[in-house]
Write a structure and sequence with these properties.
This protein is an alpha/beta fold. The protein is built from 9 helices and 13 strands.
Length: about 325
């Protein structure tokens, strides 16, 4: 099944966190199919550079705004992506992280309630915490430390899901909740500490590759284009009764050591692996069960890790060359 690629009447679509990594790819796709886009971002982790190539587009409006404050605009759809996503950034100001997820969701759901806009929530595999069920299905309730260093993000996102479901039950807001697993690609922040960008930048600079723990922990990495395909199909091609939550990610599972070795191979780097302590509450394994997405929207990722990494390495070569 393909997501609707063109629309007869442009719709007004709000993307919060639109100047971020995933948001910028989503906006590109929405504009390409003829929609009007309002990008809202406070530029905490995102940057205008991510959307610089779109700024002259007549159907794009960009607004600096923090979603923890109310926003009164008229829209038909909302993609709520605003939230720092890397542990380094979301732990920098953890109170603001929880506020962004919780107050941000209240404001954006309030906006959806008033305008009757359809609402997409960028939730996360972190709602499963350090999972004891493997691979993770949507029916699993998770294993989250509510007072640990990752809780501002994990619990904030869990509460945002709660708010989505309560606005849906209580106020009939049309919601679509996606649980996104580790996603990578060009325009990731070079210093955001996430493993793919860290390893690539380290390898390109010839710096040591910082492997946390013994590197046996696993993650499943989805290329950003595949993820955005799924966002659009979930939003456009599922009935209102189908609200999720739905896992979106690549089920290919790799140890972090394998990832380090692959990055070294693909960059042709001479960097050596350096072992560092494992951060608190670092999940030991993560792999999505995507049966629901396969059944509901006929989606599965197409880009193998090797290809996606090569494209991402090409992007970071330019970033590193510019200094
Ligand atoms: P990102 O940090 O690149 O993008 C987040 C954007 O939100 C940034 O542009 C940032 O400036 C903006 N933002 C943060 N706080 C804000 C606020 N209070 N008001 C307005 N804007 C604010 O991260 P990303 O990887 O593009 O993630 C996008 C969304 O997807 C996030 O909600 C994240 O939790 C979710 N997600 C991402 C991944 C992943 O692997 N990339 C995995 C699971 C979930
Ligand atoms: N809100 C907003 N834009 C709107 C409508 C509401 O930002 O167009 C915010 C407003 O701050 C409000 C919150 O969303 O507090 C929740 O709205 P809701 O209607 O659920 O609650 P109430 O207004 O009754 O507090
Ligand atoms: N990681 C690592 N070295 C780094 C950054 C991350 O070994 O320089 C590990 C980290 O401990 C975790 C995995 O890579 O086990 C994924 O980390 P990331 O921060 O990208 O995402 P998350 O832990 O939120 O899945």
């Amino acid at each position: 099944m393909q997501a609707t690629t063109s629309v007869s009447h442009p719709r007004r679509i709000l993307v919060t966190g639109g100047a971020g990594f995933i948001g910028s790819f989503l906006i590109e796709r929405l504009l390409a199919r003829g929609d009007e886009v309002l990008c809202v971002d406070n530029y905490f982790t995102g940057t205008r550079k991510n959307i610089a190539h779109l700024l002259d587009h007549p159907m794009l409006e960009v607004m600096r705004h923090d979603v923890t404050f109310p926003l009164y605009v008229e829209v038909d759809q909302i993609f709520n992506l605003a939230c720092p996503a890397s542990p380094v950034h979301y732990q920098f100001d953890p109170v603001q992280t929880t506020k962004t997820s919780v107050h941000g969701a209240i404001n954006m759901l309030g906006l959806a309630k008033r305008t009757k806009a359809k609402f997409f929530q960028a939730s996360t595999s972190e709602v499963y915490g350090d999972p004891v069920v493997h691979p993770q299905t949507e029916s699993y309730w998770g294993n989250v430390n509510p007072i640990g260093l990752r809780a501002c993000y994990d619990e904030g996102k869990r509460c945002a899901e709660t708010l989505c479901f309560d606005y849906h039950r209580q106020h009939k807001v049309r919601i679509k909740v996606a649980r996104i697993f580790n996603t990578y690609g060009p325009r990731m922040h070079p210093n955001d500490g996430r493993v793919v960008s860290n390893f690539i930048v380290q390898a390109l600079k010839g710096d040591p590759i910082t492997l946390f723990g013994d590197g046996s922990q696993t993650r499943s990495f989805c290329y950003v284009d595949d993820l955005v395909d799924a966002f659009l199909m979930f939003m456009e091609n599922t009935p209102d009764e189908f609200v999720g939550p739905m896992n979106l990610g690549n089920p290919g599972e790799f140890t972090i050591r394998q990832l380090a070795e692959l990055v070294v191979e693909l960059t042709g780097s001479k960097s050596k692996i350096e072992y560092r302590p494992l951060p608190q509450d670092d999940p030991k394994q993560r792999k999505p069960d995507i049966s629901l997405a396969k059944g509901m929207i006929g989606w599965e990722p197409k880009v193998p890790l090797r290809d996606g990494l090569s494209r991402t390495i090409d992007y970071f070569r330019h970033v590193v060359a510019k200094g």
